[in-house]
Specification:
A hairpin with a 6-residue loop joins strand 4 and strand 5. Strands 1, 2, 3, 4, 5, 6, 7 and 8 form an eight-stranded antiparallel β-sheet that branches. The chain contains five helices and eight strands. It has one domain (about 15-200): 3-methyladenine DNA Glycosylase, Chain A, CATH 3.10.300. By secondary structure, the chain is of the alpha+beta class. Helix 4 crosses helix 5. It has helices at about 1-10, 20-25, 25-35, 120-130, 140-150; strands at about 40-45, 45-60, 85-90, 95-100, 110-120, 165-170, 180, 195-200. The structure holds a DNA duplex.
DNA sequence: TCGAAGATTGTCT
DNA sequence: GACAATCTTCGAG
């Protein structure tokens, strides 16, 4: 009961779709401010959304871990596009990961969305992820959240301002509630402090 | 509870 | 042909 009240309160704070100017800034800045915002995906099956609780920044061709470090290819083309579009890529033969492209055109950087706290469409997420799963296992990782929200190749290069995949204003996250850490799951430049997450949030993939 | 290894395919060299 | 911004399962302690 208590949990339902908290969820209702969260849903009431979901606001407008973030404008292009939000993304056209320093990638580190955007990463930090995306915490607390809401990623929402609408498909034929319905709508599902969650609060962004963990992000990572990939900051251009000089960042060895960024896909753009290999230069502009067919795969990385969306990274060179306008701020506010989605870069969705396929990895390890079975998973999708979703990024928000940032900064001015021609500067290939993006924010990887690593974990969400489910807000709406939770039943749909359970159906997609499997019934035996706890709520925190629905979206506590970049591959998992794409499965739960139904994000795939059809969203690569689409606008996060128009949908079907959008990011909305959410709760403001105070400075004390933000933790900066090193990135996860990569070998190159893994110690760069470009990962942000909400302190004490159960849905963060790793502390 | 933790660590190791397997699954599986698009992309680039 | 090698590798990858991951997740799951399985076995050991």
């Amino acid at each position: 009961m208590k949990e339902n009240a908290a969820l209702t309160a969260r849903r009431s704070r979901i606001g407008k779709v973030l404008p292009a100017t939000f993304y056209d800034r320093d990638t580190e800045h955007v990463s930090r401010e995306l915490l607390g915002c809401v990623l929402e995906c609408t498909t034929a099956e319905g709508k599902a959304s969650g609060i962004i609780v963990e992000t990572e920044a990939y900051i251009g061709e000089h960042d060895p871990a960024c896909h753009a470090a290999a230069g502009r290819t067919g795969r990385t083309a969306p990274l060179y596009g306008r701020p506010g579009i989605a870069y969705v890529y396929f990895i390890y033969g079975m998973y999708w990961c979703v990024n928000a492209v940032t900064r001015a055109e021609g500067l290939p950087s993006a924010v990887l969305i690593r974990a969400l706290e489910p807000v709406t469409g939770i039943e749909l997420m359970r159906a997609r992820r499997g019934p035996a799963r706890s709520d925190r296992e629905l979206t506590n990782g970049p591959g998992k959240l794409c499965i739960a929200l139904g994000i795939g190749r059809e969203h690569n290069g689409t606008s996060l301002l128009r949908g079907p995949l959008v990011i909305r204003e959410g709760e403001r996250v105070g400075g004390r509630d933000v933790v900066v850490a090193s990135r996860i799951g990569i070998k190159k430049a893994a110690d760069w402090p470009l990962r942000w997450y909400i302190r004490n949030n159960d849905f963060v993939s790793r502390r």
